[in-house]
Amino acid sequence: MKYIVFFICFTVSNPLFSQILVAGTEFKPQNVDATKTYYGVNDILHIGLQGGSLSVTPTLTPNTNAGTFNAPYHYAITDNPYNLDEARYVNNSANPEYMLVYSPKPSGGNANILQYKVVGMVPNSAVTVKVKYCSVVNSAYTGCTGQRNEFKAGINLDQYNQMNGTDASQIGMGQCAEKSYTGTVDASGEMVFRMNHTQNGDCKAMGIRSIEVMGQIKPLIRSAQGSEVCAGEQITLQSVLDYNATYQWQVNTGSGWTNIGTNKSQLYETSQVKNYQFRLAITPLGGGTAINSDPITVKAITCCEVNGVAASRQTVYFEDFGRVDLNDVTGRTYYVWDYSDVLNPVEVKKTTTTPFRWQLSPAPLGAIFRPSGPLGDGDYCVAAYLTGYNADGAYAGAKLEWANRVTGPTNEPQVALDHSGKKDGAALFLNCPPGTLGKAIYERNITNLCFGKQLFFECWIAVFTNSANGPYHGVDVSVVLTDGGNAANKVTLNGTATRQADGGGVWVRIAGEITLEGTSVNMKVINNLDVSENGNDLVLDDIKIMACAPPAIDLFFDETTLSKEEEVCDEQFNLVSVASTMLVKYYANSPLYLYQWTKTPNDNTSWKNVGNPQTLATFNFTNPTAHAAFSGLNSGDKLYFRVIAGTSSVFTSFNNFTAPHYANSNDPCKNYSISDPIQLTYNCPTCKKPDSFTINSSNGLGLCPGESTV
After folding, report:
1. CB of 360 closer than 8 Å to CB of 426
2. What is the pLDDT of residues 200-220, one digit of tens each?
3. pLDDT tens-place string over residues 33-49
4. SS3 call for 190
5. How far apart are CA 339 and CA 345, in angstroms?
């Protein structure tokens, strides 16, 4: 089971470079329910400056029957272990304290208890994890007198010691202790603390009172639009994690750092063709020294011009080879994008019988699908959650063994990442078969495009090995784009990648442009090496084609927080569209805005107009329940809103986007801008009149002037 957790409060002292309380938990419930005697991991509060990720191996007990809880292997969070077995466990009713109690493990070898992961720490820095724990077994329980208990734990255990670690101090029945573990954050800024159950027998249940992670953090930030945008576009700067701190965003355009805003998410308009550097400084709410993120660079380029006015781009084809569903720890459920109809791309849910791996049709270069283990010569697979030899907590992962060395790093990763940088992301792994020089690894025909449109192509390649039995060979591929309207209109692009030891060790981008004379394009990715042994081990990911398009527009519920999710009952709320200077100029300095709503955002025909096209970039719902959008809603139902921008003539020609002239954000030929949907939840529980009741009082009932009983 895996739960993503967030901070609630923290206390720190913050001299520069000192360790602070980064994350942890005391296992206290978020909401105490007097009817409950135990809780699950997703019910608890967490402490620290930022969030962590907690995985628990034992399953949540279905009830508090002693025979159920003690049957291997369960856990429960309770303020009194007595609730779980009145005969065996201690009674803390006089001094209740919440703890995660786990039952005796199955017989045999060590069993994992939990894994606590924190990202965004200073790479290669020192980290300390303090654990407070107790034996929950009553010292007088028959058969347990004089026995002792312990566990093993460690920080960033290597792949051969995932079930081991350093012993905690042994304790007797009913006793408590604490243990501090020290270690080093890995090179990516990740810290994984693992606790392992080592003892067999009826007397070996334990309670974890708290976990505290002390260290140094490095705030993580990103641009929602990626590392390359069209000059004039707006970008949304975001922190990857949520921090219990004040925010200060800064930009450097070549003349030093300048403050640009203090929102948790920050809009910024890239007005010129240049490189922009951004960073975030956070100051803990408890006070202390500001902590800076590493800067990120966003390159603003000249993209398109329409009638002499700068324009933007939109994706018309995308292949990321899918993502595994992390809600299914077996790795048998995954999602892939289907762009067979570029006007209606859909993300499709699929299943596989080979955990964390799936096939392509046709197989690239006629290679053989490898369902498990590393990829030999002529093998391929699409894989996600790229583990090597060992599982990552509850996730076995693809277990590629030596074939998970994505980009060919010198040091072996426990879990490698696809180009997206996310564990659920997938990529194509291909150990190129012999005799395939000049043959297509990947080919697609993309139709329903627009005559005369400029297309922008990119994909990313890397190797997946870092050694060989002889001279090491990297990968060498070409990409050929051929205009469907004129075969002579062709562009050939090339890229090579190799391992870190030979000067590589990174993802390599292959990119180029073509202007169509027809309405389709053929794309081929071709193998350029006649090598199968000692290399030519290709990872291919994130194939994308973009076309010139009207400028993008964003919609929010609040411009300060850039909120795209909101809850309301009957209180007023606003829709706020944020238009760039580029957009205003594109629509001849007179854009109109039309707001729409729906309950089914993926159905283009379901969108209905809120009002008429207007010059104002905001729309205010002063009385939501009086609007047709809220008719028939039940508490918990969701509504979605979007905005369309265009000229007056565009709205006239599309009859204000009423049937049958529906707006389609995926239409590569559209002449209007359309935002992504934002989500509103109708949170308005129905009140129920209580049953009649009687007040009995032997001394009468006193009321103050003006009071009454009902």
Report:
1. no
2. 898 999 999 999 999 999 999
3. 988 999 999 999 888 99
4. coil
5. 5
Could you list the beta-strand ranges (E) of 111-175: 111-118, 126-135, 148-149, 151-155, 166-167, 171-172
Task: Give 43's DSSP letter.
Answer: G
The dihedral formed by the CA atoms of 269, 270, 271 and 276, expressed in degrees to the nearest 10? 140
Between the alpha carbon of residue 597 and those of residues 21, 620, 623, 681, the distances in Å are 44, 13, 16, 13
Residue 595's nearest CA partner among 614, 580, 622 is 614
Q: Which of 161, 410, 533, 379 is nearest to 398 (CA)?
A: 379
Q: Are 72 and 263 in contact (CB under 8 A)?
A: no
Structure tokens at 46: 């967490």
Q: Compute φ and ψ for 55, nearest 5 degrees.
A: -110, 135
| Res. 302 pLDDT band, cuts 50 70 90 | confident
Q: Phi and psi dihedrals of 584, rounded to 5?
A: -60, -45
Query: Is it true that 2-215 and 221-302 share their CATH fold?
Result: no
Note the pLDDT tens digit of each residue in 511-554.
999 999 999 999 999 999 988 788 899 999 999 999 999 999 99
Whether the CA torsion 555, 454, 228, 188 is positive or negative: it is positive
Which CATH number is associated with domain 554-682?
2.60.40.10
Query: In angstroms, what CA-CA distances link 516 with 59, 93, 679?
Result: 57, 76, 37
The architecture that CATH gives domain 2-215 is Sandwich (2.60)
644, 611 Cβ separation under 8 angstroms: no
* Amino acid, single-letter form, for residue 390: N
Top CATH class, 317-549:
mainly beta
Specify the CATH architecture of the domain 221-302: Sandwich (2.60)
Q: Considering the entire predicted model, what is its pTM?
A: 0.77
